[in-house]
Amino acid sequence: MLTGLSNDMQDIDGTRQTAVINNELLRQSVDIAALQETRLTDSGPITLVSVYAPTLTSPPETKDLFYEKLSSVIRNIPDKEQLILLGDFNARVGADNDSWPSCLGKFGVGKMNENGQRLLELCTYYNLCITNSFFMTKPQHKVSWRHPRSKHWHQLDLIIVRRSSIKCVLHTRSYHSADCDTDHSLVCCKIRMQPKKFHCSRKQGIPRINVSNMSQPKLTQKFAETFEQELEFIQKGTSTEERWGTLRDIIHSTALEAFGKRTTKTIDWFEAKSSVMIPAIESKRIALAKYKRTPSQKNLLSLRAARGKIQRMARLCANEYWQELSETIQTAAISGNARGMYDGIKRAIGPTQCKTVPLKSSSGVVLSHKNQQMERWVEHYTDLYSTQNTMTVSALDAIECLPTMDELYVEPTLEELSKAIDNLASGKAPGNDGIPPDLLKQCKSSPLSPLHKFYVSAGKMGACHKT
Questions:
Q1: How far is 134 from 125, CA to CA, in rounded Å?
Q2: Using one digit for the tens of pLDDT, what is the confidence trace for 259-283?
Q3: Could you tell me if 159 and 172 are in contact, meaning their C-beta atoms sit under 8 angstroms apart?
Q4: How far apart are CA 358 and CA 21, in angstroms?
Q5: How far apart are CA 19 and CA 181, in angstroms?
Q6: How far apart are the C-alpha atoms of 158 and 187, rounded to whole Å?
Q7: SS3 of residue 94 by DSSP
Q8: Cβ(103)–Cβ(120) below 8 Å
Q9: What are the DSSP calls for 320-373, one per residue?
Q10: Rounded to whole angstroms, how far apart are CA atoms 413 and 313?
């Protein structure tokens, strides 16, 4: 059993394939990709339609049903919204720009077949255009699939946009060097998009300090030296709030510079084993490029051998990663390291999902929408605190007066402050000041004296206001 993965071996293979495909898309600087014959969780930031059309040998009924569904999808998208169709259309649209001037450019390739005519009729009806035919590229960059028997190259993978959006398309071409274990080459399109700007009222959070680097003596020494230099900027004549703000900013900025920013990126099995996987993937990519340049039985056998090797290596690396992670969790649990155990579990199962508990209205109706729940809380607390209570003088006089605790006005000593810092719990999240408790505990010698002076001065000002 692989921790964090499904018991279905098909799903496990899909997860491994996802990592390989993601690596290829990152190498080609591709942000959005349409995948066919690959079962992945569908997501997308804009209106996209990933298409996998029937082949040329499919019965006419299947083709009619497909284009009816595609037409229904296009009709449901408003005309003002940007529409992008991309995928394996299994259609040869040809290069007859004179017959199809509205949807076909001047740089098409090959001859049109039956599926191509169906697609061109659809594009003409909905005012769409095929971007693959609008750019003058090299011949090998216009095709994406080679027929296994005739060895002729064709363009079956197309990217289609509205006619009004063709001015935003900068380039469309095929990349034969990308290897994702398929006989189709990667087709990429560069589009100039103008995303809408959304006003975000939430303030940007304070960068978190990487407390794991505080165990390095060199970084701790760097923090101490930089902190001593920055202390000169604290002015003695300013108010308590200004002095604390300056001291707080100096501690945080100095620690951030010395120990770095904490990153919360989750590492998957592919990234953890990238030193082993990337060279093997590169060798398979070289074998694929060699076979595409010179198709022969020898090169085909070399490509198959490289693919088999990378598949075996992927299974081995994924199993090793989950086994090592499971052993880390087990070791942390046995040794009583609760933090390490929960960190390992979080890596295995992923981030925690934020869920809301349904509330009931005053009439007993269940409220599941977030806005309705917020309104219910406002109503609840308004009713709770709207009641005014009156207090009589006799009740106040009946309260027993406690003796004055004069020891609270005694200035705290440096040893008391040091002991209070040592009693801070480690591994806790920082407060609004962004200073983690681990920083004050491990680097106590540097900020201890300035903090003591600040607390003494703040206590004196509080006593003056009290008198």
A1: 19
A2: 988 876 667 788 888 888 888 888 9
A3: yes
A4: 39
A5: 13
A6: 8
A7: strand
A8: yes
A9: HHHHHHHHHHHHHHHHT-HHHHHHHHHHHH-SPPP----EE-TTS-EE-SHHHH
A10: 62
CA pair distance 458, 285, nearest whole angstrom:
67
Structure tokens at 443: 């680097």
Mean pLDDT in order along the chain per 10 residues (467 residues) = 39 55 76 62 66 92 93 89 91 92 91 92 93 92 89 91 91 85 86 65 76 87 88 70 86 90 76 87 89 88 90 91 92 88 84 72 85 89 82 85 81 89 86 88 88 81 49
What count of residues does the chain have? 467
Residue 45 CA to residue 36 CA, distance in Å, equals 19
Tell me the whole-structure pTM to 2 decimals. 0.49
pLDDT for residue 351: 66
- The interaxial angle of helices 9-27 and 297-335, nearest 10 deg, is 110
Element (H, E) at 422: helix 414-422
* DSSP, res 410: S
State both tokens at 431: 């407060």
pLDDT in tens, 302-312: 989 998 998 89
* C-beta atoms surrounding 71 within 10 Å: 13
Tokens in use for 161?
A: 């946009």
Token pair in block for residue 399: 């309260």
Euclidean distance between CA atoms 307 and 390, whole angstroms: 82
Give one word for 41, left, alpha or beta, with left for phi > 0 and alpha for psi -120 to 50: beta
Region 31-191: CATH code? 3.60.10.10
Intra-chain end-to-end CA distance of the chain, in Å: 70
DSSP state letter for 37: S
Show the DSSP H helices in 214-273 as ranges. Answer: 217-230, 240-259, 269-272
DSSP 424-466: SPTTPPP-TT---HHHHHHTTTTTHHHHHHHHHHHHHHHHHHH
Tokens of 449: 């004296």
Name residue, tokens 């690396």.
317
Give the phi and the psi of residue 100 in degrees, each rounded to 5: -130, 65
**Burial of 280: CB neighbours in 10 Å, binned 0-12, 13-18, 19+:** middle
Residue 187 in contact with residue 131, Cβ under 8 Å?
no
Please tell me whether residue 158 adopts helix, strand or coil conformation: strand
How far, CA to CA in Å, does 312 sit from each of 16, 199, 276, 309, 319? 11, 49, 12, 5, 11
Label residues 193-226 b or e (16+ Cβ within 10 Å = b).
eeeeeeeeeeeeeeeebbbebbeeeebbeebeeb
Distance CA 109, CA 86 (A): 18
Phi, psi for residue 110 in degrees, rounded to 5: 75, -165
